From TrEMBL:
Belongs to the peptidase M1 family. The keyword Chaperone does not apply. This is Aminopeptidase N. Residues 156-165 have a biased composition (Basic and acidic residues). It is an enzyme of class 3 (hydrolase). CDD domains: M1_APN_like. InterPro entries: Aminopeptidase_N-like_N_sf (IPR042097), Peptidase_M1 (IPR001930), Peptidase_M1_aminopeptidases (IPR050344), Peptidase_M1_dom (IPR014782), Peptidase_M4/M1_CTD_sf (IPR027268). Keywords: Aminopeptidase, Hydrolase, Metal-binding, Metalloprotease, Protease, Signal, Zinc.
Length: 477
C-alpha cells in the first residue's frame, strides 16, 4: 500500500513509509420491482462473499455482492469536471428494499434499476436507490453523475493521511487517486468492502494531448478514449485512475509479460532507469513467489506523497522526491502486493497484516540480498523495531480503527514471517507462500484460513507462533 509512513529500511531509518450535500429526488412511486432475471453468467468470476467490516462498519454493504462495474468516464481538465456513467451488476446476498453504495461529493443525475427509472438519494457518503431485491437474483443498476471530485479522510497518524484519499484534481488540470482503505467512492458508486471483489471495464475520455491510465489490462485507444479491463476480480480500493499529459513507455517482463509505464516528460525522467528495472524485480519475485498472477503489469506516476499496489498498474507518487535506491525498494514492495493483497486479499481490515507484513518481509529479503545483510542483522533489526512499534501502536493482529495501516502491521507482520521462515527454511517457506497464492487466488481470506493453511501444508501446528506474534503486546521471545 502507500508508504509515506515510517516504514524503515534496514540500512537506515527512512520516513516513507466529509459528506456530500444531501440530494434527493422525491419518489414518484414505490420501489421499482425487479425485472425477470437476466443472464449474469458473463460476470460469474466477480462473485464474492462480502464480509461486514468490524473495524470500519460505516463503509461498505455486506448485503450486496458487486459482480462487475462498467465505468464510462469523461474528464475535462479546464473545468476539473468528471462526468460518468456506472453500470453495476450486483447480486443481492439477502432480500432488501434498497441498494446502498458508498459515494461522495458528486451529483447524481439519473438512476435506473434493470432499465426502469429509479429514485435515489445521496447523503452522508452513501447513495441509496430503492429497489426490491431478492437474494441471489442479480440486478443491474445504472447511475449517471457528474462533479468535481474531492478527497475524503481516513483515520491514521501516517504523514500521507493529511492529503486524504480518493480522486483529486491536480492544479495542472489532470487528476489522480490514492484510495486505501476507501476512496473509490469519490469517482464512482462503489461497495467499499475489502472483501467485495468485482470485474471492471473502464473507459476514460480525455481531450487531445492528454492520456488516461487506470488499473487493469490496457485495451485499445479509440480516438481520445482509453480502455482498461480487469477480467479477474478487484477490490474497489485497488482500482486507480490518473489523467495527465503522460508519455507512455512500454517494456517486456519475464515470459513476455507486457509492462506499461505512464510518466511525465522531464518531470519523471530520472526515475525511468529505475522503472525499467521492473523485469529484473519481477523475475526475482517470481523465483520466490511463483508466476506473476496477472496478464499485464505497469506503473503510473502521480502527484501523491505515497505509493500503492493498485492492481496491474502500481501508483507511485512523485511528491516523495524519490532517490533511485528507495524507489526501487518500494517497487519491490508494491509489486509483491500483486501476490499478497491483490491476488489474495484480506476479508476485513483487521487482517491488513496479510497484505503489509508479507510485502514488507519480501522487501526486506530483497534489501538483505542486495546489501549483503546477514540473517542475524535482519533478526536484530526486526526485533528492535517490533518492540518499538508494539509499545507505540500495539500488536499487528489487533489494529485500532484510529491507526489505519501504521508501521506495526508492516514490520511486526514481517517479523512473524521471519520466525516462520526460520522454522521452515527458505525452500519450504517460499513453497508455502507460492501455494497460498495459487490455492486462494481471486479470493479474500482471514487469519483463521492462513493458520489452518500453514498447519495443513507443513504438518505442524504453528498457531501459537503466529498468534503470539500477531497478538502479544510485547515482542515474543
Amino acid at each position: 500500500m502507500h508508504r509515506s509512513l515510517a516504514v524503515v529500511a534496514l540500512a537506515a531509518t527512512v520516513a516513507c513509509p466529509a459528506c456530500t450535500d444531501d440530494q434527493a429526488k422525491p419518489a414518484a412511486s414505490a420501489a421499482p420491482s425487479v425485472a425477470p432475471a437476466a443472464d449474469y453468467s458473463a460476470w460469474r468470476a466477480g462473485r464474492s462473499t462480502p464480509v461486514a467490516d468490524t473495524l470500519y462498519p460505516e463503509h461498505g454493504n455486506s448485503r450486496i455482492d458487486i459482480l462487475a462495474y462498467a465505468l464510462k468516464l469523461d474528464w475535462r481538465p479546464a473545468e476539473k469536471l468528471l462526468t460518468g456513467t456506472a453500470t453495476i451488476r450486483l447480486r443481492p446476498v439477502a432480500a432488501a428494499t434498497e441498494i446502498s453504495l458508498d459515494f461522495a461529493h458528486l451529483t447524481v443525475d439519473k438512476a435506473t434499476v434493470d432499465g426502469a427509472p429509479a429514485t435515489f438519494a445521496v447523503a452522508g457518503q452513501k447513495l441509496t436507490v430503492p429497489a426490491t431485491l431478492v437474494a441471489d437474483r442479480p440486478v443491474t443498476l445504472v447511475v449517471d453523475y457528474h462533479g468535481t471530485p474531492e478527497q475524503v479522510s481516513y483515520p491514521s497518524h501516517r504523514d500521507d493521511a493529511k492529503e486524504g484519499v480518493g480522486l483529486r484534481p491536480a492544479t495542472t488540470g489532470g487528476a489522480w487517486t490514492m484510495q486505501e482503505p476507501w476512496g473509490a467512492m469519490t469517482w464512482y458508486p462503489a461497495n467499499e468492502l475489502v472483501s467485495d471483489k468485482a470485474l471492471y471495464d473502464i473507459a476514460v475520455t480525455v481531450p487531445a494531448g492528454w492520456a488516461a491510465a487506470a488499473s487493469g489490462t490496457p485495451g485499445p485507444v479509440e480516438g481520445n478514449t482509453y480502455h482498461y479491463t480487469s477480467t479477474v476480480p478487484v477490490a474497489a480500493y485497488l482500482t486507480t485512475l490518473a489523467v495527465d499529459r503522460y508519455r507512455k513507455v512500454t517494456q517486456t517482463g519475464p515470459h513476455g509479460l507486457p509492462l506499461t509505464y505512464w510518466v511525465l516528460p522531464k518531470t519523471d525522467d530520472k526515475l525511468l532507469p529505475s522503472l525499467k528495472k521492473s523485469p529484473e524485480i519481477l523475475t526475482w519475485l517470481e523465483h520466490k513467489l511463483g508466476r506473476y498472477p496477472f496478464e499485464t503489469a505497469g506503473v503510473l506516476m502521480n502527484g501523491s506523497a505515497s505509493a500503492m499496489e493498485t492492481q496491474q498498474m502500481l501508483s507511485m507518487g512523485r511528491s516523495l522526491k524519490w532517490e533511485p535506491p528507495f524507489f526501487e525498494e518500494t517497487l519491490v514492495h508494491e509489486y509483491a502486493h500483486q501476490w499478497f493483497g491483490d491476488a489474495v486479499t484480506p476479508s476485513t481490515w483487521t487482517d491488513l497484516w496479510l497484505n503489509e507484513g508479507f510485502a514488507q518481509y519480501i522487501e526486506f529479503r530483497w534489501e538483505q540480498e542486495l546489501r549483503k545483510f546477514s540473517d542475524a542483522d535482519l533478526e536484530r533489526f526486526l526485533r528492535r523495531r517490533d518492540a518499538e512499534l508494539r509499545e507505540k501502536v500495539g500488536p499487528p493482529g489487533k489494529p485500532k480503527a484510529a491507526n489505519f495501516a501504521e508501521s506495526n502491521v508492516y514490520v511486526c507482520g514481517a517479523a512473524m514471517l521471519k520466525e516462520l521462515n526460520d522454522a521452515l527454511g527458505d525452500a519450504r517457506f517460499f513453497a508455502l507462500m507460492r501455494a497460498w497464492v495459487a490455492e486462494h487466488r481471486g479470493t479474500s481470506q482471514d487469519r483463521a484460513a492462513f493458520v489452518a493453511f500453514v498447519g495443513t501444508n507443513t504438518g505442524k501446528d504453528f498457531s501459537k507462533l503466529i498468534d503470539a506474534w500477531l497478538d502479544s503486546p510485547k515482542t515474543p521471545e
